[in-house]
Amino acid sequence: MFTGIVEAIGEIADMQPSGGDMRLRIRTGKLDLGDVKLGDSICTSGCCLTVTDLPGDGYWCDVSNESLALTTLGDLRVGSKVNLEKSLTPSSRLGGHIVSGHVDGIGEVVSFADDGRSVRWVMRAPDELARYIAHKGSITVDGTSLTVNAVRGAEFDLNIIPQTTEETIFSEYQVGTRVNLEVDLIARYLERLLQGERAADPGAAGISQAFLAEHGFMGNH
Predict the structure, then answer these.
(1) Nearest of 158, 148, 142 to residue 187 by alpha carbon
(2) How many domains does the chain have?
(3) I need a labelling partner for 178 at 20 to 30 A (CA). Which of 3, 77, 101, 170 fits?
(4) What pLDDT digit, counting tens, does each position of 13-37 carry?
(5) Domain containing 19 — which CATH number?
(6) What is the pLDDT of residues 64-78, one digit of tens each?
């Protein structure tokens, strides 16, 4: 588990295709690896990856074909920047929100503009994730825990302060940049709980306005 508070910006140092999968070597910059051992997890731009080797200036990890297909890890090149966070320990501060490092989908940067000293970013999520994104709720973008400032369908706004821009890879983004998204874990479980016995039906759809109205969660106001 992670907090979504990025600890360092890393860089892809090497990529080695291996039977359809990929081995990545990541230089970790200022990230302290003194307490990291083989088998530990490091959140790499939102993806929970297992450390397989520690060459001194970073770590090696294996990325499955599944992860390459369903995240932006397949877009990386040598020199690409990535957000890094070590996994939680019992004494860690939970400064962001609970992040699993399991990417739910790939979003896209729609626009960005200065907003005082901050930058207002507009991003688009896949349609199937839109129902989990709420005004003032939490979302993880490339491993960064953020608050949603506004929602319009599948698009949502983020206000990024200078500190976040400096300490993450937000400065690398342009219109059209693809990003890894992880929605709030609580929203996922809440949907499943509301389905009740329908959750065991493999053909059951997710929560819809019709479902909520049928079960008394929506009234006339």
Answers:
(1) 148
(2) 2
(3) 3
(4) 999 998 889 999 999 999 999 999 9
(5) 2.40.30.20
(6) 999 999 999 999 999
